[in-house]
Amino acid sequence: MIGDVSRTRAALTALFLIPVLLLAGCSDDEPKPKFAPPSSEAPTSPTTTEVDPQAAFIDEFFSEVTNSISSGDPTPFLEMAPGCKNCQVIARNLSAAYEDGGRIEGGRWTVESATKSSESEWSLSLRTAEERWLDADDQVVKIVDPATLQVSLLLKPAGSGWTVQEMKLG
């Protein structure tokens, strides 16, 4: 008998609690978020530093020199340096390396630091990667060791941008 009473009590308790719990879930109260709603203000952007247009041009120039080492076509960087005598020497050497099916492997030129010496003159620390100059038969003609060069670059205004007037390798 005690077993029948316990089962009856449990069944009645469950029948009583289920409707109460269901009614509590149907409340009109919306749950409140525990964090603030998103602000209607646009987020502020971090402070950006302006890049000197001459410094940006210098980076682009040496990127084109690197591309020319890989392709053998110095035209893009020469267009950025009309009249630069040392640039013309570099261009002739690159063109000669690619004559008769030769090529250059490696040879990335990267500006490590640039300091403006005057209104249009810059002192650069330029890092060069190893270059392997190969002939048409894949025979090594020469290897240029990696180096850090001190370079003086003189820029000249041209339209809305700049050109390299002279480059001195030190």
Automatic annotation (TrEMBL):
Superkingdom to which the source organism belongs: Bacteria
Compositionally biased tracts (Low complexity): 37-50
PROSITE patterns named among the record's database cross-references: PROKAR_LIPOPROTEIN (PS51257)
Region (Disordered): 31-50
Protein name (database record): Lipoprotein
Annotated source species: Nocardioides conyzicola
